[in-house]
Amino acid sequence: MSLGDENGASGGYADTGQTRTRLPEGDPYGGARRGGRSSSRSLVTVVGIVVLLIAAIAFANRGGDDDSPARGSSDKPATSATAASGDTPVRSTTAGIPTGFPHTQQGAQSAAANYAVALGSAEMFNKARRHEIVDTVYAPDIAAARQAALDSAYSNESFLSNIGLAKDGSTPRGQTFVSRIIPVGTKVTSSGNDNATVEVWYTSLFGLSGDASTNPVSESWYTTTYELRWVGDDWKVTDFQQKDGPVPVGRDQKASTADDMTKAVEEYGGFTYAR
User: Fold this and answer.
1) pTM (global) more than 0.85
2) Distance spanning both ends of the chain, measured CA to CA
3) CB 101 within 8 A of CB 111
4) Cβ atoms < 10 Å from Cβ of 159
5) Residue 242's beta-bridge partner residues?
6) For the chain, what are the domain ranges?
7) What is the rounded CA–CA span in Å between residue 38 and residue 51?
8) Which of 166, 169, 226 is nearest to 195 (CA)?
9) Is 84's pLDDT higher than 80?
């Protein structure tokens, strides 16, 4: 889950290559224009660091026979490596999350992309829903060990207050909590018969959309490396690590108002991702 840094201040930084975003009249969302957003930036970073550190497990099961169906290659990827395969990504869903991925490299990449979306969603801030997500995407032996640690992190009152949520994790009245991950691409870095290491490059949206929000929705870019194991006829997560970027150069676009952002979040649904 990867909620990360915001890009730059409202006016941008000259000659630094950082994103410059023009804000609408009246700084999002509802206050006077601020000179910078470093506070929000650091708070969002805390989300990714806290969750990822406690979710990470010192576990890696790599290797395998040369004839394995999910065997990787050390050769450089072909120019068409980022093209979708066209294969059906899943056969079913569990707890609303795509599951039943093929026992192939493409299946592992599709699993990693879809699991990233679930683990980075706002639903992770709801205890009952978080348990469903973790039980669905993690290997059974890993999921059992993760629940208590994740519950502790997501129920920390100071942490919730810093990102603008109430002490019980609820969203303030009149605001919409946004936490979304949008995969851009995937690649397998190593694999064996029953394990695979997959990198997912994605952009994320995180913050509160609504009047008087002190943590407006911002965009960040990350790459998460997932360790996957073939368990119970499906790919499951055993570990993951996150790093910043690659981050594209942002265009000089005016930031949307709170109403426009809230409307977009409520009206535009997500996707099932296939490699």
Assistant:
1) no
2) 20
3) yes
4) 18
5) 224
6) 21-74+85-267
7) 20
8) 226
9) no
What string of H, E and C letters represents the secondary structure of the chain? CCCCCCCCCCCCCCCCCCCCEECCCCECCCECCCCCCHHHHHHHHHHHHHHHHHHCCCCCCCCCCCCCCCCCCCCCCCCCCCCCCCCCCCCEEECCEEECCCCCHHHHHHHHHHHHHHHCCHHHHCHHHHHHHHHHHECHHHHHHHHHHHHHHHCCHHHHHHCCCCCCCCCCCCEEEEEEEEEEEEEEEEECCCEEEEEEEEEEEEEEEECCCCCCCEEEEEEEEEEEEECCCCEEEEEEEEEECCCCCCCCEECCCHHHHHHHHHHCCCCCCCC
List the structure tokens of 185: 């691409």
CB 58 within 8 A of CB 239: yes
Residue 86: predicted pLDDT: 63
